[in-house]
Design brief:
It is built from 19 helices and twelve strands. By secondary structure, it is mainly alpha-helical. It has four domains: about 1-70 and about 230-315, HUPs (Rossmann fold, 3-Layer(aba) Sandwich); about 80-230, HUPs (Rossmann fold, 3-Layer(aba) Sandwich), CATH 3.40.50.620; about 315-365, Helicase, Ruva Protein, domain 3 (Orthogonal Bundle), CATH 1.10.8; about 380-465, Orthogonal Bundle (Arc Repressor Mutant, subunit A), CATH 1.10.10. The strands form five sheets. Strands 1-2-3 form a three-stranded parallel β-sheet. Strand 2, helix 2 and strand 3 (about 75) form a beta-alpha-beta unit. Helix 5 crosses helix 6 (about 205-220), helix 11 (about 315-330) packs across helix 12 and helix 12 packs across helix 13. The longest helix is centred in the first third of the chain and has 16 residues, at about 15-30. Monomer. Keywords: Aminoacyl-tRNA synthetase, ATP-binding, Cytoplasm, Ligase, Nucleotide-binding, Protein biosynthesis.
Length: about 475
């Protein structure tokens, strides 16, 4: 059997983090088995579906590098096929037309609620002759669900799950206007697309029992099911925006790398021994449904930050420069030219060791390409005032004739300068750091001086050593 999985989001908003994990699990399972990963946009809710949401979903998947096979399928465009199946079920006696008015249904639910009964359709048109239909009422088409026995689902995550058929009502397949419902469309599409494994959130488990009835009514083979526990916040509560229930685009804008987000989402509910850092290649090799836990996982930004820091340290320096340059350009309000990009790339080994996100990396790198005079604020400004300014002016005099402009020789020269004045190295290095970076925190300052070059280094010292 060739494995076929699908990711089927509704385009009513962004690709949220829970949906991204579902897509990842489906993608990994298909790739592990050398199978097919399909994308279906479930856009039957025309009032809420938008083109912008479709684009956000596609962009999110592309950013995560979760490539799908073939073209994305629009569920709405297959509505005639869905309706055709409903009419076949009418012909076979597995569905019927229901002429109950909206007022009748509301009265039925109110009576059930008052009696403390479950609110579900009572089957009032299940066995009635259509000749009794009131004039002028457009009927819905309902599934004639089994009323006795039970439905059993063998789930790869939840195990064997049972429900009494008496708890399942006759759900609507076609609305009064002839349009198919989500429950019908999903089953028809999964069957027609030859989906072998339905991997989705466990909030769909109830839907599965209902959808199984459609498969059986049509005589179709069931796919295998795996219902994944939902993601909760770090406090154990249902995931919300304050926990991290954001669009995938928000994680990109916050400065996370796609490989870090993939690794983090993989570990939200799936495990392989004690392994925490799992490359995409390893994930494809190892992923199976048996590794998915039954308990909800908890979203933790601290763990995501640590993973992202790891992947940033591994990332190509030129790639990181390309990712942070737009951020820096926005902050500085100007374009960074080729020489500035080259400087950032050469500085990257020292920069990326300390940052956890691309935003942090951009903040720490900005001083390299800032126009003079660079901004020196806070405690750094105190270091280059008064005695600090005079000290830097003297240091500049020592460095000006110095030709061996590399970090090792610069450090040696600055150490000699400090010793000749009876000072500890930090008393000179810290004002120098403030002058060159505008901050009290930077990569090793002698590396910074080497990267900036002699001319720029002396110019930045002069900017703070002399009155402005």
């Amino acid at each position: 059997m060739s494995v076929v999985t699908r990711f089927a989001p509704s385009p009513t908003g962004f690709l949220h983090i829970g949906g991204a994990r579902t897509a990842l699990f489906n993608w990994l399972f298909a790739r592990h088995h050398g199978g097919t990963f399909l994308l279906r946009i479930e856009d039957t809710d025309r009032a809420r579906s938008t083109d912008a949401a479709v684009e956000a979903i596609l962009d999110g998947l592309k950013w995560l590098e979760l490539d799908w096979d073939g073209e994305a399928v629009s569920q709405f465009e297959r509505r005639d096929r869905h309706a055709e199946v409903a009419h076949r079920m009418l012909e076979s006696g597995h569905a019927y037309r229901c002429y109950a008015s909206q007022e009748e249904l509301e009265a039925m639910r109110a009576a059930q609620k008052a009696a403390g009964q479950p609110m579900r359709y009572d089957g009032r048109w299940r066995d009635r002759d259509p000749s009794e239909a009131p004039a002028g009422v457009a009927p819905v088409v309902r599934l004639k669900a089994p009323q006795e026995g039970e439905t059993v689902v063998q789930d790869h995550v939840q195990g064997e799950v049972r429900v009494q058929n008496a708890q399942l009502d006759d759900m609507v397949l076609l609305r009064a206007d002839g349009t198919p419902t989500y429950m019908l469309s999903v089953v028809v599409d999964d069957h027609d697309m030859n989906v072998t494994h339905v991997i989705r959130g466990d909030d769909h488990l109830t839907n599965t029992f209902r959808q199984v009835q459609i498969y059986r009514a049509m005589g179709w083979d069931l796919p295998e099911f795996a219902h994944i526990p939902l993601i909760h916040g770090a406090d154990g509560a249902k995931l919300s925006k304050r926990h991290g229930a954001l669009g995938v685009d928000a994680y990109r804008d916050m400065g996370y790398l796609p490989e870090a987000v993939r690794n983090y989402l993989l570990r939200l509910g799936w495990g392989h021994g004690d392994d925490e850092i799992i490359s995409t290649e390893q994930a494809i090799e190892w992923f199976d449904l048996g590794g998915i836990g039954r308990s909800p996982s908890r979203f933790d930004f601290a763990k995501l930050d640590n993973l992202n820091a790891h992947y940033m340290r591994l990332a190509d320096d030129g790639r990181l420069t390309g990712l942070i340059t737009p951020i820096i350009e926005t902050r500085l309000g100007r374009t960074i030219g080729p020489s500035g990009r080259d400087l950032l790339t050469r500085a990257m080994p020292g920069l990326k060791q300390r940052a956890k996100t691309l935003v942090e990396l951009a903040e720490s790198a900005q001083f390299y390409v800032a126009a003079r005079p660079i901004e020196v604020t806070g405690k750094a400004a105190d270091l280059v005032a008064g005695d600090g300014a005079a000290l830097l002016a003297d240091l500049a005099d020592e460095l000006r004739p110095f030709d061996a402009w590399n970090s090792t020789d610069i450090e040696t020269k600055v150490r000699e300068f400090a010793e000749n004045r009876g000072l500890k190295l930090g008393k000179v290095a810290q004002p120098l750091r403030a002058a060159l970076s505008g901050s009290t925190i930077s990569p090793p300052i002698f590396e910074v001086a080497e990267l900036l070059g002699k001319t720029e280094t002396l110019a930045r010292i002069a900017d703070v050593a002399q009155p402005r």
